[in-house]
Structure prediction request, 290 residues.
Amino acid sequence: MIRPALRRVVAAASALAGALALGLTAAPAQASASLDYAALGDSYSAGSGVLPVDASNLLCMRSTVNYPHVIAAATGARLTDVTCGGAQTKDFTQSQYPGVAPQADAVNSGTDLVTLTIGGNDNSTFVNAIVDCGTVGVLSAGQGSPCKDKYGSSFDDAIDANTYPALKSALLAVKAKAPNARVAVLGYPWIVPAAADPSCFLKLPIASGDVPYLRALQAHLNSVVQRAATETGATFVDFSQASDGHDACRPAGTRWIEPLLFGTNIVPVHPNALGEQRMAERTMSALGLG
Prediction:
């Protein structure tokens, strides 16, 4: 039989052990909940086209299930989401729309985490490349490389001359306002496959010779984004391998990016809900979150 005094000691020790165990299990959740997280960037960050849409600013077409919301839900972070469809690097330091503050205003010395995708809208790279290449692809019945013949190296030249310095300047502006934050810059998941897929032409009407041209253009943009991220001390989240085989030519349920035609998103050639989920997961893995 255990004496009363000994029973009290055992009970106290058990209570202490329970309290310590509770503290050990609760600490990570508390740490995650205290994370101040600001999401910046363009439509790939905003999840433009993925329903439901954040009704607080319909101009930005910001989804409430975009990758920042997925990250915040998984980590318990306090999210400030200022992502906006159509954003360019200049919109980090100036207003994109009347009444919409510069995106960098969302960060400060207390910000712990910043994520973003940016650069694809500078010089109208994505819009001109995808839409124009699709238009001339239809006119050529999918033959040849009419887009490459028309534009040549102009997109690549603009990326080097304009997008790269603008990216670096925008990231430095974020760093200056949020010196204590971890900054994750996401690359863009593949839009087109590595080689032409004739079965995809009705959904993504890119001429066979322009498919590798657009793939190389996107690879170039991602390499410049990575360079700017590295040079400013940010973490680059690379999707070159992870998104391979999940381009807009794949079937629903496999693709991360919706095609130009006959897709499920209200905004084509953008990540779907699965794509936003996978972007969130890879970002959390790269940052050791979750």
